[in-house]
């Protein structure tokens, strides 16, 4: 893999060498490359109109499976800052390791991952801490805008803490606390709001569970009176639908926000998730 990435970097460099002008436009903006949507969202919120953010993962694609094109590798090389989460996207890790570490920001350095679970952004309090760390990093890249960067970060911090308050109030009085998911992506959210995540598969969304594993989850869900089996927007619902049929429940989306559709944002999807959880858990 490392040799492949190195070869692609060379291809990208040669392609750029044949082009007229610099790789990045001389527009006075800070050019940020983000590994996937939540990092794009935070970069844009904190950077404001002083940053141009390029998301490496196209809408509707699984960020774990990202394979970088030569043009994207060249963009990583020329960016003012690369915002990524080490361990989540192997192709990005490989590319970063072959480039200058001084222009990278690993969000895992702000909020340490728990049990190798990368989905830290699903906890708005942890995402607020990441935004604060990114603000410090962007302020070092663009010192002329440091004051405004920190103001925007403070505003985002307030919005994320308001969202945390909505979750706390919305999930305070519920008939059930078990959240049954097809993929173990909601550990941070569950820990923050005193929920119990029960997953059919592990952290790898491509993992195929054995028949006994599916039966065990179905048995537990039936015993606990679970009414909803959740699946993700970017993953086939078949597994969740199978378990739901087994216990007479319904299948519904709980979105890990690894990407969004047009018109959606982190906040709109998080609030849709809250509504889905309240319905599934019988909250008052």
From TrEMBL:
Keywords: Signal, Transport. InterPro entries: Bact_metal-bind_prot9, ZnuA-like. Residues 1-25 form the signal peptide. It comes from the Bacteria. The keyword Coiled coil does not apply. PANTHER family: HIGH-AFFINITY ZINC UPTAKE SYSTEM PROTEIN ZNUA, HIGH-AFFINITY ZINC UPTAKE SYSTEM PROTEIN ZNUA-RELATED. Belongs to the bacterial solute-binding protein 9 family. This is Zinc ABC transporter substrate-binding protein. It comes from Dactylosporangium darangshiense.
């Amino acid at each position: 893999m490392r040799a492949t990435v190195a070869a692609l970097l060379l291809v990208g460099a040669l392609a750029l060498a044949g082009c007229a002008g610099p790789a990045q436009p001389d527009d006075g903006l800070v050019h940020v490359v983000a590994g996937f949507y939540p990092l794009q969202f935070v970069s844009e919120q904190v950077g404001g109109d002083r940053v141009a953010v390029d998301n490496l993962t196209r809408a509707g694609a699984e960020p774990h499976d990202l394979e970088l094109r030569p043009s994207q590798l060249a963009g990583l090389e020329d960016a003012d800052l690369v915002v990524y989460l080490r361990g989540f996207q192997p192709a990005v890790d490989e590319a970063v390791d072959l480039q200058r570490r001084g222009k990278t920001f690993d969000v895992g350095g702000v909020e340490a991952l728990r049990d190798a679970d990368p989905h830290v952004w699903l906890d708005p309090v942890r995402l607020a801490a990441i935004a604060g760390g990114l603000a410090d990093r962007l302020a070092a890249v663009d010192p002329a805008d440091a004051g405004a960067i920190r103001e925007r970060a403070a505003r985002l911090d307030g919005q994320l803490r308001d969202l945390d308050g909505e979750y706390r109030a919305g999930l305070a009085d519920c008939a059930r606390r078990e959240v049954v998911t097809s993929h173990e992506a909601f550990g941070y959210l569950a820990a923050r709001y005193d929920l119990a995540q029960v997953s059919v598969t592990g952290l790898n969304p491509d993992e195929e569970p054995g028949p006994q594993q599916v039966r065990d989850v179905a048995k537990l869900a039936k015993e606990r009176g679970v009414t909803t089996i959740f699946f993700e927007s970017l993953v086939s619902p078949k597994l969740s639908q199978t378990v739901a049929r087994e216990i007479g429940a319904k299948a519904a989306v709980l979105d890990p926000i690894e990407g969004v559709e047009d018109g959606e944002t982190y906040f709109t999807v998080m609030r849709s998730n809250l509504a889905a959880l309240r319905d599934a858990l019988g909250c008052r």
